[in-house]
Amino acid sequence: MGTISEAPALFDSAYYRDPYAVYDWLRVHDPVHRFRFPVGDVPMVFLSRYDDVKALLSDQRFSNDGEAYGSEDFRRSGMIFGAGTLIGRILTVLDPPDHTRVRRLAMGAFTPRRVAAWKEPVDRIVGECLARLEKSDSPDVMDYAGRIPADVTGEILGFPLKRFGEMLDAIERAFHADPDNPDHEAVVAAAFEELVDYGRELIVEKRRNPGDDLTSHFVHARDGEDQLTEDELVSLVAVMIMAGIDTTRNLIGSAVLALLDHPDQLGLLRGHPEHTPTAVEEFLRYDGAFCVGLFRLAKEDLEIGGVPVPAGTPVVAGLQSANNDPEKYADPRRLDITRTGQRHLALGHGLHNCMGAALARMETGVAVPALLERFPRMRLAVPREKVLFEENWLLRSLPSLPVTL
């Protein structure tokens, strides 16, 4: 890990090469860090310590709704997630009481019986993806990691495969578009619109032919006594499509890389699959799917740690910095699949904790041990220094992880 002698820059190329060195510096020297976001040159605050990040995520003086509470600079910057589309009104940006109502109706789908029933399709799809990986001339863990949640999400939501490839392409353009493209904002907005359109089509189909799937449940909630609005229904289906695929893909990929970097832990998990539940929690803590949380906007003038935060200021929750805070975790950059103790923040905290957490944990807990068992001699096919995470401010995402099986 590198060392930093002066205030680092967030979200530049050096940061993406080693974000954990930046986090280490900030936690010690500037835990409530004022900076200007490189896109739009917007003044922001970055929190790096575990206690501060956890407090922020449940602090009702902040909102995720950038359109309602963001500063003028922020609203003009193009940084509001899904601005101008229904994606901009998804559950993750709603405040109570709308958030409380929509989340209660949505979580009614995640019953213990339904979650338990997902184990069969997860096992089956992982087996199919392993077979596909084994036949590949150039095996890449990220192909495996991406196809599993895509197929599982498709089956659970109950959508037909006729536009499956188009949907995956839209997700890729929405979350992994080239930031240097002068038409970047338009590309992302168009991709979000495609996902919304697909959600509408799926809802029409499930009204016509309901089944025992999440979309049918959400449609029933829309048409029941505690109604969702039609826009809330569409945005809920769209966010399930997005979050169900990309987040788990990132987690599986980073988990496999972490194990390849820690062969003792790889051997321990292969020989003792009973460690899988704590291993999944450690994968989330060590290198979770998100670097940071969505922007939290101050609803009033306030202070954090003595630092003034004017109303409208976006505050960034450094999730992975918090999850590697040595005040909370001994030797945090060591992977330890038996680690217990302080709960990580990789899947959020408070009102906006991840709705699909149980499914993400299940998929990762099946996909990673199955890969190790099927290919016990698996190793990287390229030098380790060639394996780089994408330069994406929000996601901790590997574009590729080529291996020799």
Automatic annotation (TrEMBL):
UniProt keyword annotation of Transcription present: no
GO molecular function: heme binding; iron ion binding; monooxygenase activity; oxidoreductase activity, acting on paired donors, with incorporation or reduction of molecular oxygen
InterPro entries from the UniProt entry: Cyt_P450, Cyt_P450_B, Cyt_P450_sf
Family membership: Belongs to the cytochrome P450 family.
Phylogenetic classification of the source organism: Bacteria, Bacillati, Actinomycetota, Actinomycetes, Kitasatosporales
Coiled-coil residue spans: none
Protein name in UniProt: Cytochrome P450
Domain of life according to the entry: Bacteria
Keywords: Heme, Iron, Metal-binding, Monooxygenase, Oxidoreductase
Pfam families: p450
